[in-house]
Fold this protein.
Amino acid sequence: MTNSKQRYDLIVIGAGPAGLMAARTAARLGARTLLLEKLPRAGELGHPCGAAIAPHPGFVSGQRREDGLHFPELDLMIPHSLVVGWPTTQRYVSPGRYEMRIVFPSRDDFPIAVVDKPALLQLLAQQAGEAGAELRFGTSVTGLLEESGRITGVRTRGEEIRARLVLSAEGISRRFCQEAGLYEGAPPTRWYVTIVWQELEAPAIGAEQVGQVATFGQRYTSAQRAMGTVDIPTAGRAGVYFSFFSDSPKARTDEPLWFYLEEYKQKDPRVRDLFVGAEVLQKKGCRMVVQDAPPWMIRDGFMGLGDAVTPGGQLGIVPSMYTGQQAAQVAAAAIQAGDVSAEQLAPYDCLLRGPFLRGVETEGKIILGLANMTDEEMDRVCQTFSRMDLSPFFFGEVWPMARETVKWVGRALPLILRDWQLIRRMMAGG
């Protein structure tokens, strides 16, 4: 193993949205930046992703223009050629077909789209390279370097590479964030989620169905503690996911996991009509860990970002890019000040521990809460929330949220009183 001289200000691990945005931002701010990615090329995906993007209220605004989607806080323009479709709804459907529904209006000031994620990652990689970042694909990081209590670089299979700061955007593995000690003292893992996924050509799907359908319950499946999700980016295409929740690293099932996905497609009346005549284009699987965010996002010489420090490991594309950008800005300021201690990096830690991360935690708790209910309990909760328009909550608009809450209480007070304990269980994650 050879030892390189310290010639980088910043090493970024991982070329997902968070890592590439961090590398692009740091390089633009003048930091000598190296990005390392184990996959062979920009745009490769380590796990399936629905690839939906939207502004993040309070942090990232958006605008639909003639030449594409503009996110000013990210200094990012996504060309229309990268937009695959425009979702119209997001639905959570109980076994009895009661629905909690978000309807997405077509708004130029709040564009919601499904993008070609590989192409978006290639665009970010190109911009990072043009800004001066060095990008090495097909390079696996095997460990961190540490001296006197500070992270000082990384090991690869061929060398040791040193830098003033290491930013880990490794994704759902969390390996290096754990090695750096960010998860020390964290509550134990709550759940493991194993996901099998297929991309389909689905001629039965029309443009009016573009969006997402999430289904819960045991009524139509022989799997235990499972849920199905169908992402529809555009007419005639779909991604179908079947997720298994377990309290151990391996999902224990009577049949191969792909059996249950096929059972879901063929037998569940909530979604089966979508798959008439469908053809499988590709398939993948992955495992995710559901646990609380780590006690620390930073330590001397190290920062964790994106999915690696997110409950459930699914932060979303726009929030991931935003955390990558913010981490790089704090990192560049620390490097310029000559102080990469945790104290100097604290503004980034404070950002994630505010309302930004709380929204992600709430969404994860709702999904887990529903997954741990009986079919009858899910029917009751979804019936109660079917009386509420959830769209203002997605857009983060305070007065519309308040008005809708008041209207919901007026419409559904008997149901709310009936199901209050169930609602509390759902919001607490089961």
User: Anything to note?
Assistant: The radius of gyration is 22 Å. The chain has a mean pLDDT of 90. The first helix runs from residue 17 to 28.
